[in-house]
Amino acid sequence: MPNHQETIAALSAIVGPAACLSEPHETESYTTDYRKLYRGAAIAVVLPASTEQVSQVVSWCHDHGIKIVPQGGNTSLMGGAVPDSAGDAIILNLRRMSRVLEVDTLNDTMTLQAGVTLSNARTAADQAERLFPLRIGSEGSCQIGGNIATNAGGTAVLRYGNMRDLVLGVEAVLPDGRIYTSLRGLRKDNTGYDLKQLFIGSEGTLGIITAAVLKLMPKPQATSAAFVSVNSPAAAVELLSLAKQMAGPMVTAFELVSADAMNLVCEYLGNATPPLQGQPSWMVLVEFTSTGSQEALDASLMQVLELGIERAWVNDAAVASSLSDVQAFWRIREEISDAQTRTGGSIKCDVSVPLSSIANFIDQACQTVKSMAPDCRMVIYGHMGDGNVHFNPLRPAHQSAKEFMAAHYQSVSHAVDGLVHKLNGSISAEHGIGVAKRDDLKQYKSSIELGLMWQIKQALDPLNLLNPGKMLPSL
Ligand code: FAD
Ligand code: 2HG
Ligand code: ZN
After folding, report:
1. Ligand 2 mutation target, pool 75, 77, 352, most atoms within 8 A of CB
2. Sign of torsion over alpha carbons 91, 92, 98, 100
3. Beta bridge partners of 71
């Protein structure tokens, strides 16, 4: 086994000394996760500039038994992109591989290196008069490779699906350095196992994603949005069902926001004015988009809201009257996550259940959590249209994050996950497993599922060098 200096020298020779960082002040932001809950250590942070360099680095590490933590924008909320404190791994960060390689408007695809940020990918599509529809709050930092490795979701999944639905091809460096590629941009290809699917959602445990072909969509010409006060989560589900029946694919987003989530984010944004008066207990941000006229789209949204009022599901609505109103609504929604990060002491439960059970889940989970931690703030929000809510009980203002988490983290997350499991749901709808949820998988996945996951891991990475200790619980 080479010592650290030998490893740094060998990898510097491949990527260049300026792209192999090993001083603590240079590596700290890469070894610490976004929420600063996980602080690890690394031999070096390696920044390759091409697939060939990735292949050479991985091959050298394979031959010398060096562990690798693949990293994109380091925005994982599950501690998935940072090493542990042993200091015996390198971080392979893709940020220098940031080129959009091709935009093919006839095939409605774009091909990019994995280190392109999501916002740059969206801009490239926009410049070609197309839409790349993945939309998440971390878009300025997260990278396409990270989005694929986590199968990211976000606020437009209701209409366009999650990352898995948007990927047509993947190029990945395998744990022994070989390069797998399916960068063909085909919508139909039944020539055996669809191997690219293995890398989507694999959280860096099976290969380093170096490039991808992504689907492009027609660019919407009209957007209508409203913040709507609803009677209850059950009323929100009824409204969603009505909207889908009446407006079909124009329904692009349907995001639930609880009163505590709204109060928190408005305070975080410097006492922003909430969009609805009277402190409603439950709100939804509804967005319709279309390639047709603005007038027709506005009329569709109004029709749905009027019927919702008639049926007593909707109490009130603030309808956006301009694009800047729409943007202001989205800012409120997108900043809820960072508002919690700044406050600290948030028990994150990123859960999904069938839509038909979501109201029941929220009611039961609220009662259970309130009986365990009566003063906590019920920050509940997210992608109700996908059956996915961020059920994130937050520390009360008078209690420190440390005290709150020590008293309640284990018991509350187990109670919520247990309820989700009973309702046929998932304990991680879109953020993945990382280290935060790794050991919980034992309880919620069958031994057959876990056994198959390990068989796949061992087939591709028998030395367990890629992102060890992440996602897969020990058997
Ligand atoms: P990283 O955090 O760097 O890595 C994530 C995982 O992918 C790690 O396991 C890492 O090893 C692996 N990985 C990264 N790059 C590669 C690669 N090239 N090859 C192989 N493996 C790789 N997520 C959602 O799904 N929906 C949301 O709405 C959402 N909103 C967010 C809002 C905020 C403010 C923040 C901070 C995060 C949010 N996230 C959301 C979580 C996060 O942004 C996503 O998981 C994102 O896809 C991660 O991308 P990244 O490039 O930052 O990956
Ligand atoms: C969102 O939908 C993200 O805003 C982040 O998925 C959720 O911070 C969270 O819990
Ligand atoms: Zn989310």
Report:
1. 77
2. negative
3. 93
Environment class of 177 (CB within 10 Å of its CB; exposed 0-12, middle 13-18, buried 19+): middle
What token pair was written down for 124? 């490239």
Residue 165: which pLDDT band, with cuts at 50, 70 and 90?
very high
Q: Is the CB of 337 under 6 A from ligand 2?
A: yes
Give the separation between CA 217 and CA 224, rounded to whole angstroms: 18
Q: Tens digit of pLDDT for each residue in 195-207?
A: 999 999 999 999 9
Ligand 1 contacts CB of residue 153 (under 6 A): yes
- Per-residue confidence band for 271, with pLDDT thresholds at 50, 70 and 90: confident
Considering the chain, what is the average pLDDT of its residues?
Answer: 98
Q: Is 137 in the pocket of ligand 2 (CB under 6 A)?
A: yes
